[in-house]
Specification:
The complex is a heterotrimer of chains A (about 280), B (about 120) and C (about 150).
Chain A (H helix, E strand, L loop, with lengths): L1 H30 L2 E8 L9 E8 L6 H12 L18 E4 L2 E4 L12 E5 L6 E3 L2 E2 L2 H9 L24 H8 L9 H5 L11 H12 L7 H8 L13 H5 L6 H13 L16
Parallel strand pairs in A: 1-5
Antiparallel strand pairs in A: 1-2, 3-4, 3-5, 6-7
Chain B lengths: L4 H28 L3 H4 L2 H9 L1 H27 L5 H31 L2
Chain C lengths: L4 H4 L8 H4 L7 H28 L5 H11 L2 H27 L22 H27 L2
Helix pairs in contact in C: 3-5, 5-6
Classes of the chains: A alpha+beta (about 280), B mainly alpha (about 120), C mainly alpha (about 150).
């Protein structure tokens, strides 16, 4: 109980600090009526030479970078290619480099950014398709390599009348829950310095997903996952530069998952082969 | 493959920690001499090599840092390119370079030990 | 890893080494990553040079003294001071990395709340980087005092 109260107080303190920062930044927000949006333009399939196009965007107070891009697309140049969907940081489609750092365009308010110029470029480390759109095939391929599903030989998936149900404590869930919040937006993959040169390295997203399923007590593929990542270009090529966790918009903290998984391989943490028990359907 | 990557990395961490310990002893021994410049006099250095425990210390520094250093370089190079000739080349280079530097340094320690 | 060659060979739009060498965008851990790598390569080069330098003992006193003279110039002293600083940083930060690489000092996974700050990038492990930098600076000052005093 005390811990919960402590946490609430901590959050209150954090929010108060944030409000103060907002108040301090109010001048910068209101004084900026217009921003210049620099948009990277090129069509790889037509072998276009990359160029940067500038758009003058009128700023409204809570405008996000995605809103600005959609304004440019609606009123200034309809040929700008952007991938987006939910506009609320849930789908992970609108990842791009904003002022050189990977961010979700829908989750980045213009008021958070310094200066009167905003530069939007496609995510690094993903093959480029057109303008701000990149190809995620390789990224998803790495993700699939980690067997991102729960495997359990004891679970009966054929008999629909006898549905399997596992028993997990809240602590068991906490061990993997935050890693399951991953929306596969690719920001961590774009920020990682190892992915920048090593094409065989699975990247922070895939490795943290390997931990997500490793830590799940319903899963019994633990050893296969450990072996899959213990290669020349596997988990050991992570050097804890922390950039993945820095840019993650959902608090997944991929670096934490990777280090915890490595802790199990190194024997820092006990390899608990605790498998959740099946609840008797009767 | 002879070693799993996890085993190589455990060796990397262990050699790093052990090297830190032996280099610390090496530096403390040097600082225990009355003056830094005197400790580098030819006769004093040769005398150091006549001291068997000190020679063993130097040899262990040589082996530990060679393994740790060249494995570190292997890691950096592995991340640069990904194709079989490059990766095999790096493995061969790492092993050859580690053995060469250990052999070269060991020769110095042994011959200096025999010098009068 | 069973990734097909088509994907492995596709290096298009990778940041390359430029991605390693741009530490300022992502905070202290990225700076530590960059320093650890840079100091490691520098120390390896020094180690090879040092093993070669000591082998001049076998060519007699004159050869040894000639080799020593190179390090007893102001430039040589500065190089040695850099070796002292980089080795101190590499060792101290290396110890921090041995712990963090196993998940020690990073905190436990939980339920993330807005604004979703990563718990692994906490002050407990991050202070290791600052300690490494401070110790490196102290070691360099001490090294300068010993080397430039000429004793």
């Amino acid at each position: 109980m005390n811990q919960i109260i402590k946490k609430i107080r901590m959050l209150e303190k954090k929010n108060n600090q944030k409000d103060m920062t907002k108040i301090n930044n109010t001048k910068a927000e209101t004084s900026r009526q217009m921003v210049v949006l620099n948009v990277y333009r090129a069509n790889t399939h037509r072998n276009d030479l990359p160029r940067v196009e500038k758009f003058q965007i009128p700023v409204q107070r809570w405008m996000t970078v995605l809103d600005a891009l959609l304004f440019a697309k609606s009123y200034l140049d309809s040929s700008i290619a952007i991938r987006y969907s939910c506009r609320m940081a849930s789908c992970g489609s609108c990842g791009m480099k904003i002022n050189g750092v990977p961010k979700l365009a829908c989750y980045t308010k213009i008021s958070e950014l310094q200066g009167n110029t905003i530069t939007c470029e496609p995510l690094s480390n993903f093959p480029h398709i057109r303008d701000l759109v990149t190809d995620f095939s390789q990224f998803f391929e790495h993700h699939k390599e980690m067997a991102p599903f729960i495997h359990n030989n004891n679970a009966d998936i054929k008999d629909e009348n006898k549905l399997s149900e596992f028993k997990q404590t809240p602590q068991d869930v906490d061990n993997y829950l935050q890693f399951s919040y991953c929306i596969k937006c690719g920001l961590c993959y774009s920020a990682c310095p190892t992915v920048a040169t090593d094409t065989k390295f699975p990247g922070p997203q895939a490795l943290s997903q390997a931990y997500r399923y490793y830590a799940d007590t319903r899963d019994d593929l633990s050893n296969r996952r450990l072996n899959a990542v213990d290669g020349k270009h596997g988990i050991w090529r992570c050097h804890f530069a922390g950039s993945c966790s820095k840019v993650c918009p959902k608090g997944v903290d991929p670096a934490l998952g990777i280090q915890l998984l490595r802790g199990h391989i190194m024997g820092y943490s006990r390899n608990e082969n605790k498998i959740a028990k099946l609840r008797d359907p009767t | 493959m002879m070693f799993k990557e996890s085993q190589i990395m455990k060796i990397h961490y262990t050699t790093g920690l052990a090297a830190l310990f032996v280099v610390a002893v090496h530096i403390i021994v040097r600082l225990m001499t009355p003056s830094f410049s005197l400790s580098l006099l030819y006769e004093n250095v040769i005398n150091n090599y006549h001291n068997i425990p000190y020679s063993i210390l130097l040899e262990s520094i040589l082996i530990l840092i060679a393994i740790h250093g060249f494995n570190g370089l292997r890691i950096i190079l592995l991340e640069l390119r990904q194709n079989k000739p490059w990766e095999d080349g790096i493995t061969i280079f790492t092993i050859a370079a580690t053995i060469s530097i250990i052999a070269y340094g060991t020769r110095t320690i042994l011959v200096a030990n025999w010098l009068g | 890893m069973k990734i097909s060659n088509e994907w492995v060979n596709n290096r298009e739009n990778r940041e390359g080494i430029k991605g390693w060498l741009n530490p300022s965008r992502y905070g202290w851990e990225r700076i530590s990553y960059w320093f650890q790598r840079l100091t490691g390569v520098f120390l390896l080069v020094y180690f090879i040079g040092h093993v070669y330098e000591t082998s001049s003992l076998l060519r007699g006193e004159n050869a040894w003294n000639a080799m020593l003279e190179i390090t007893q110039t102001p430039g040589g002293h500065i190089f040695l001071i850099l070796v002292i600083g980089t080795s101190t940083f590499h060792s101290t930060n290396g110890i921090r990395l041995i712990f963090t690489h196993g998940g020690k000092g990073l905190g436990n996974p939980g339920r993330p709340d807005y604004p979703y700050d990563a718990i692994s990038l906490n002050y407990r492990q991050r202070s290791g980087i600052w300690v490494a930098l401070i110790l490196a600076a102290i070691a360099m000052l001490y090294g300068s005092a010993v080397l430039f005093s000429g004793k």
